[in-house]
Amino acid sequence: MAEMATGVELTPLQHKTLALLRRAPDPVVFDQGFIAELRRDVDEAFEHFHERLGSTTLFVSKHRVSSVLGCEAQHVHPDEFAWSPAVAGGQVAHRAIQLGVNWRGDPVPADLVDEAIVRLSDDDSSLGDWIERLGEADRADLTGFAVDKVIKFSECFPPLDRRAAPTTESSVRWPNEGPIVLSGKVDLSIGRPAGAESRKVIIDLKTGWVAPKHREDLRFYALVETLRTGVPPRKLASFYLDAGEPVVEDVTERTLVTATRRTLDAVNAEIELQVEGRAPVKRPGVSCKWCPLSTECDEGQAYLTGDDR
Ligand code: SF4
Fold it and tell me: Does residue 144 share a domain with residue 292?
């Protein structure tokens, strides 16, 4: 990771980031027998799941894993998602950061954001359609949210040298086809394996509070990476841009076993709910705060008013 910075003078925060993500002197090499066994366990579980799925297909993302393992009633409720400048600002910032990583020279954050908005508006996607129809005030808000995030990113991260193989918004999936596909988009990854040596760091960029779910999200990516390439990443980092604080975790065999168990539990629950007709279980928790069902849900109300504690 010494190649991460390009010789420019770094701020204390950038130095801190570099120190946290730097490779230790001893190479990280996972036991190949362990990786083969993990892969075998997943293959066997998928075979069993395929028989129960019938003609249903499942796209399993980090969001769906944590959603189905949280409150199932909320999980099966139709999603009434709508874009807003605050929500879209994150997507635009990620696209701008992606441009910035490969931009020559020292780009101005607002220019990167303007270019990201133009490119996203050309996409054949719901976000592209929404940007196309934006009024001037919402567009200004969108730009403001995204520029804020891009500036915070540049304050936290040193310039990323190309030799560190930085990639942003990189789509990952495993397997390539089949009735169950694990998939996701990695905000930022740095490094790549050297033979069987784990060198990659997978980073999620966050703007809110620290939540345990964020660690689980990254472990899901570590599992997908391991299944794809046979070489696990060496570190996972949730980077909280507002606070300038990363939460970093070394990838271990235990990390991968936990992620496997969680992912298989999530697929099993999806099959029970979507194919086998099991009734969803309510699991009150922090998600009651933004649940669209909360006003008519007794369990949720009890949680929110503290009556269940
Ligand atoms: S209010 Fe809470 S318990 Fe009720 S459905 Fe929503 S998340 Fe589940």
Answer: no
